[in-house]
């Protein structure tokens, strides 16, 4: 086999590994829950990266007005100084998930021991503030690899992904964002949003109306999965 053929094989191998790491729905390294198989028209809303002060408060107000419960995958360091906001989330019926303590940009390069320390740190902070220790974990950036798998198994976490990625941190046009999400709706879907994005709060009332207009109900993630979200 010539050098060119080896080069192509290497390129294919690297591409598969990259995609397997980046696309959590592939279940390449780690089995994650990204949706529910059902014919019933319901979906679960999830928000990542908060809490984010005023933006999160606005989202909570909209959800309360519409009687919708959601899942918030919080970053542990963002809870510090926003303890009352976390308590409000839980008091208003929302679920809290673990999105790591640091959300470090090199998180996926951590050793499994360092990853586990990071996740457990977030869980301790959450427990100290609100009395709950999250079992559901969403990997930072949705990246998985063998160390993430070891961490999830050793820590007794449940990996959660998504089936609809809104790209609300990238899309800046509200109509385009709404169209993208609403056209992707399927029974049992898990929708990924971010309470750190201003556009998300701006479109949320119309998004909730659009979901309902299409005959869908929105239920809390753990209720849709029929799993206990806390230790």
Structural class: alpha/beta
How far is the N terminus from the C terminus? 54 Å
Helical percent range?
Answer: 40-55%
- When the domains are counted, the total is 1
Main sheet characteristics:
6 strands, parallel
**What string gives the helices and strands in order?**
HEHEHHEHEHEEHEHEH
CATH superfamily: Glycoside hydrolase/deacetylase
Question: Overview of this structure, please?
Answer:
The protein is of the alpha/beta class and 231 residues long. It has a single domain, classed as TIM Barrel (Alpha-Beta Barrel). It is 45% helix and 12% strand. Strands 1, 2, 3, 6, 7 and 8 form a six-stranded parallel sheet that branches. It has a two-stranded parallel ribbon with strand order 4-5. Helix 7 (174-182) links the parallel strand 6 (164-165) and strand 7 (190-194). The N and C termini lie far apart (54 Å). The model has no long low-confidence stretch (mean pLDDT 92).
What attributes characterize this protein structure?
globular, alpha/beta, 231 residues, six-stranded parallel β-sheet, TIM Barrel, 12% strand, 9 helices, 45% helix
